[in-house]
């Protein structure tokens, strides 16, 4: 496929005993399915779909080499011959689908979520409640033997290779840096001693598995921690493991305890590939680069400018298993793009739920959410082209139904038209591009600027009507709220109403946080562009040294955010910490960003009234006046169900989905999931 638009992406990669058909690695992702024996058929279906979709090489989620190294009690491990069979079934199925798969060996070390964890030194991590036991020298030898045994079992199980997880702050990484390795024996002290375990694991694994087996080493190139590795140490490790026999070096960025975003949507596309680029002259084995690569043109640019030999993408394969085939067939506009929200993948993993995807609810559910042709064709109306309506309409049309999609606005997207305007959420544009294209390919009859009522719907003879009319903003009923200084979030984000320099935001939920982020930035571009945010600005803002002259890339640096465009007060009635309910893995980013922009976050507020003096509030029963130019209300939402009564009276079969169904705790994940699942049943 070298004559494609992406010649570098589709250039085969010769590893000696095997040639990969393209330069796309599906990076390791814990799905939660690997942890239970009965879920392995589901895991197999998940990988087979991605193999068929064209991934050059896939890597499984982390599998522990022993119990102590497992992430949590009963998490997946490969330590016995009798465990090989379930892996074998999966690798056979992947090979039948013309795919290639490596197994990641992950030893959690002090990141293990159980009391039996081991590490180079007995230092508890800031993100787990258990203090690890420091290993003896004999214990370390035992861990190395377990890595090698695990790799040999993986070979028996039919994998094409293994990935040794040496980054993200897990076990091996913990040996590399003085912060977590305080040993004074041959496994600590000088860097040669600290890296010994990594080199020994690779060397002994190569000896055990022979030449015709891929060994990938995931190397932490940028720790982003005080006391992390210096660049010359990173290079020395790369050269030593090359000597020890790795086939490929994959890039690791940050530790789990790092407080700089690494993969969230605020990270610019391909922001970290410069790190791999710096490494290229040091070694001759193929290098894989990673983090926030989600579209073919981005991946192609990275390879064309020589940052790496291969790109790794993980979440984009949850969003679209066919990513590679679509890119290869010049159908990039049909790719369902990962918007880096973490809401259904990483957030699920941290909540012990099966990982899925906000934009593709079939991810991780390939066997139970099956989209099949309908047995009887129906005439279906969908009211509202927000995420719920878009998912429902296109899924129903794909199944062969006749679908009319009514939308009152002049464009599709519903609230995503506001979300995409928030600085750092430009990726949401891609979801609307995807659905726009899918409307075309599935043949949905889209009627924009058509706000329908129950009579009209009842008169058109639809077999079923899906009401996806979304929400209306909640009225907080604050005395004086009809004052000209008061705006709603829709006024600000959609209607471009002017906003003054001093602003109070009422309501610190997802929308209150987003509106505050919008307000502290200068004028936003009219058309959001996900390619626009610049890595240089991002690293300057968060305090990362792109010259790599500092340990871990961050030693001695502090975040430097620009001056806020406005002074903002973000208010809530609850006494809990504002932003507590935001996403598990991204909430801290929103809170940190607003803190650096100087937003005043106030909890335990009661709203008294609004007048020419400003917003009168009370905290701890003490009255105060916020002398602001504008007050923006973000006080939650209520379902919009005005159509229901008329439709029911007319005897039309009606379904409610998305915000129109339940507005409380609604997000796009639930809206798309509900829309897809309902349409799959109709
Ligand atoms: P909506 O998106 O509200 O769409 C309803 C549509 O129906 C609208 O287009 C409306 O015009 C149309 N309509 C209504 N009545 C009629 C009628 N009678 N005839 C024709 N058309 C009609 N969610 C997340 O998961 N993650 C985020 O990061 C996130 N960020 C957000 C940021 C902002 C600023 C906002 C405002 C929302 C955000 N959300 C986010 C929430 C997410 O956008 C909503 O949960 C989602 O859009 C709800 O989808 P829906 O289809 O139910 O409704
Ligand atoms: P929300 O998260 O429910 O927050 C509503 C806020 O309004 C709360 O802070 C609440 O806090 C306040 N409030 C509620 N009733 C009020 C009243 N009568 N008077 C004054 N304040 C009141 O809802 P949202 O911010 O509107 O967001 C809507 C949905 O979009 C959310 O469910 C969210 O999941 C989704 N979203 C997600 C993201 C994301 O990043 N994942 C971003 C944006 C939106 P108090 O009651 O304490 O005052
Ligand atoms: Fe990407 Fe969000 Fe889907 Fe995760 S849930 S794969 S971050 S779009």
Task: Give the helix/strand layout.
Elements: E1 13-14, E2 19-20, E3 24-26, H1 40-52, E4 57-63, H2 84-96, E5 101-105, E6 118-119, E7 133-134, H3 137-156, E8 161-166, H4 171-176, H5 191-194, H6 196-209, E9 214-222, H7 231-244, E10 248-253, H8 273-279, E11 287-289, H9 296-304, E12 310-313, H10 315-319, H11 323-328, H12 346-350, E13 379-383, H13 387-398, E14 402-406, H14 416-419, H15 428-442, E15 445-447, H16 454-459, E16 464-467, E17 471-473, E18 486-488, H17 489-493, E19 502-506, H18 510-520, H19 535-542, E20 567-571, H20 587-596, E21 600-602, E22 605-611, E23 614-619, E24 622-626, E25 630-633, E26 637-639, H21 644-649, E27 653-656, H22 668-681
Helix pairs in contact: 1-2, 3-6, 6-7, 13-15, 13-22, 18-20
Q: How is this structure best described in words?
A:
By secondary structure, this protein is of the alpha/beta class. It folds into three domains: 13-349, TIM Barrel (Alpha-Beta Barrel), CATH 3.20.20.70; 379-472 and 638-681, Rossmann fold, CATH 3.40.50.720; 475-521 and 564-635, FAD/NAD(P)-binding domain. The chain is 30% helix and 17% strand. The chain has an eight-stranded parallel β-barrel with strand order 3-4-5-8-9-10-11-12, surrounded by seven helices. Strands 15-14-13-16-27 form a five-stranded parallel beta sheet. Strands 18-25-19-20-21 form a five-stranded parallel beta sheet. Strand 13 (379-383), helix 13 (387-398) and strand 14 form a beta-alpha-beta unit. Helix 6 (196-209) packs parallel to helix 7 (231-244) and helix 13 (387-398) packs parallel to helix 22 (668-681). The longest helix has 20 residues, at 137-156.
């Amino acid at each position: 496929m070298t004559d494609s638009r992406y010649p570098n992406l589709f250039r085969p990669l010769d590893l000696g005993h095997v040639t990969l058909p393209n330069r796309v690695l599906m990076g390791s992702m814990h799905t939660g399915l690997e942890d239970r024996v009965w879920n392995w058929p589901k895991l197999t279906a998940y990988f087979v779909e991605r193999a068929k979709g064209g991934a050059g090489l896939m890597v499984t989620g982390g599998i522990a080499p022993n119990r102590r190294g497992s992430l949590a009690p009963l998490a997946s491990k490969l330590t016995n011959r009798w465990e090989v069979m379930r892996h074998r079934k999966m690798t056979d199925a992947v090979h039948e689908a013309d795919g290639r798969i490596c197994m990641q060996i992950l030893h959690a070390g002090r990141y293990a979520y159980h009391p039996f964890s081991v590490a180079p030194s007995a230092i508890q991590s800031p993100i787990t409640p258990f203090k690890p036991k420091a290993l003896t020298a004999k214990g370390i030898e035992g861990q190395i033997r377990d890595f090698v045994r695990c790799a040999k079992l993986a070979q028996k199980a039919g994998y094409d290779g293994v990935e040794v997880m040496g980054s993200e702050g897990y076990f091996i990484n913990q040996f590399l840096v003085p912060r977590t390795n305080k040993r004074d024996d041959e496994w600590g002290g000088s860097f040669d001693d600290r890296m010994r375990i990594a080199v020994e694991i690779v060397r002994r694994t190569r000896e055990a598995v022979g030449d015709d087996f891929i060994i990938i080493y995931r190397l932490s190139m940028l720790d982003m921690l005080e006391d992390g590795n210096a660049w010359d140490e990173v290079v020395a490790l790369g050269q030593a493991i090359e000597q020890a026999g790795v086939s490929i070096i994959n890039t690791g960025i940050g530790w789990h305890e790092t407080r700089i975003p690494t993969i969230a949507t605020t990270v610019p596309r391909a922001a970290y590939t410069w790190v791999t680029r710096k490494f290229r002259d040091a070694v001759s084995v193929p290098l894989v680069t990673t983090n926030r690569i989600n579209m073919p043109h981005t991946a192609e640019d990275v390879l064309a400018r020589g940052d790496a030999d291969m790109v790794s993408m993980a979440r984009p394969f949850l969003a679209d298993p066919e990513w590679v085939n679509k890119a290869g067939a010049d159908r990039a506009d049909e790719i369902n793009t990962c918007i880096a929200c973490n809401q259904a993948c990483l957030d699920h993993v941290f909540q012990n739920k099966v990982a899925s995807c906000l934009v593709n609810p079939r991810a991780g559910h390939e066997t139970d959410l099956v989209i099949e042709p309908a047995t009887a064709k129906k005439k279906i109306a969908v009211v509202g082209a927000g995420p719920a309506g878009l998912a429902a309409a296109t899924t129903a049309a794909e199944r062969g139904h006749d679908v009319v999609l009514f939308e009152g606005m002049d464009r599709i997207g519903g609230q995503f038209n506001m979300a995409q305007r928030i600085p750092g959420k430009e990726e949401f544009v891609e979801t609307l591009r995807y659905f726009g294209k899918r409307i075309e390919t599935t043949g949905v009859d889209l009627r924009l600027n058509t706000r329908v009522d129950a009579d009209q719907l009842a008169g058109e003879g639809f077999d079923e009507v899906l009401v996806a009319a979304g929400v209306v903003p909640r009225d907080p009923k604050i005395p004086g709220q009809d004052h000209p200084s008061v705006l709603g979030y829709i006024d600000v984000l959609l209607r471009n109403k002017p906003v003054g320099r001093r602003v109070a935001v009422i309501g610190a939920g997802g929308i209150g946080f987003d509106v505050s982020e919008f307000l502290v930035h200068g004028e936003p571009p009219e058309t959001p562009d996900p390619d626009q945010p610049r890595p240089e600005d991002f690293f300057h803002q968060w305090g990362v040294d792109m010259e790599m002259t500092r340990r871990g890339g961050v030693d001695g640096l502090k975040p430097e955010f620009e001056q806020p465009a406005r002074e903002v007060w973000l208010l809530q009635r609850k006494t809990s910490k504002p932003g507590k309910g935001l996403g598990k893995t991204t909430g801290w980013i929103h809170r940190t960003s607003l803190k650096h922009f100087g937003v005043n976050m106030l909890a335990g507020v009661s709203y008294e009234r609004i007048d020419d003096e400003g917003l009168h509030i009370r905290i701890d029963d003490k009255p105060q006046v916020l002398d602001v130019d504008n007050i923006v209300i973000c006080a939650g939402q209520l379902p919009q169900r005005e159509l229901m009564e008329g439709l029911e009276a007319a005897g039309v079969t009606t379904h409610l989905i998305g915000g129109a169904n339940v507005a409380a705790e609604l997000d796009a994940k639930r809206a798309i999931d509900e829309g897809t699942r309902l349409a799959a049943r109709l």
